[in-house]
């Protein structure tokens, strides 16, 4: 009735049919566990490794309203003159903002005359030690030009909304929108102390000078840096900022300029070569040979000072600033970062985890099947 091969096949099927209930329960248990892993655990793992957002999505995260709120928080300290306790209080506020983002944050303490001051440094580590560092910085201290003594400085209001809470707000905002990304380069977000001169001229770029000296001594290499100092006051020409560079500005200024058109931003950004501008925190970077640019609102006059008539006075308040100009400027910088270095893709890593678990489960089930089949043939 049956050929020899058919009889042999039927014999094998009969052997497999004789698998014991205990073996069947084991196979069902393994299959159930594998099903739970692939339907529950894998999606959870992969969700934590979701596809990196596009450059446009990252740029669109920037919030002018959030920046205004940061400026108002800093205004609340009254004066942030570097020799006042309120200045240290504002440093603690910035430290806390960085820490809330999960960044590595530290104080860099030093003396300016008899006064203890500190830079606030937040680091987003990169994946490659061979890549240069990017830095975004601004000074958090403020002053009133009428102060001529310690007591006067303590009693004269210096809200410093534009100079330079606007820059600090931009640095904090950049940290906010970039902190969950993975880059090859390390990025540092720094709030500098004692940029202003102070009533006795003991200050003046002290925080940035101290920071740069330490970086040079450690042999840190920079791909680029941007110092944001007064980006919020808008003149008659609409949203307008200037990137002041020297001959060693690095790739960041052009990348930032390119991002204005790439992302359709409402911003006029001019790149200006002027090595004589030495009154902000970019200058110690230049002196050390580090690529850096000063990003600042529209400049005017022979010394090319910012156009804001209220800075260094009690009238430098947030109600005089342009939310749109600050938001678009910060969006341009975020886009510039993404032009200089793309975030590392995460979707491939998640796919490999998913595939590995599937293969692992398939191997287990196949092994059990082969074992039962051999047992049935014996």
Helix content estimate: 40-55%
Tell me what portion of residues adopts beta-strand conformation. Answer: 15-25%
Number of domains: 2
The CATH architecture of the largest domain can be given as: 3-Layer(aba) Sandwich
Distance between the termini: 25 Å
Overall pLDDT score: 85
Return the string of H and E elements: HHHHHEEEHHEHEEHEHEEEHH
CATH class label of the largest domain: Alpha Beta
State the helix count. Answer: 12
CATH H-level homologous superfamily name of the largest domain = Zn peptidases
How is this structure best described in words?
By secondary structure, the chain is α/β, with parallel strands linked by helices. The chain has two domains: 23-50 and 357-377; 55-340, Zn peptidases (Aminopeptidase). The protein is built from twelve helices and ten strands. It has helices at 4-17, 21-47, 55-60, 64-75, 85-100, 150-155, 161-178, 206-218, 252-262, 282-287, 323-340, 347-377, and strands at residues 104-112, 115-124, 133-139, 187-192, 222-228, 240-245, 268-273, 293-297, 299-300, 305-306. The strands form two sheets. It has an eight-stranded mixed sheet, with helices on both faces. Strands 9-10 form a two-stranded antiparallel ribbon. The protein is globular, with a radius of gyration of 30 Å. Mean pLDDT is 85; it is low at 9-17, 42-51 and 347-352.
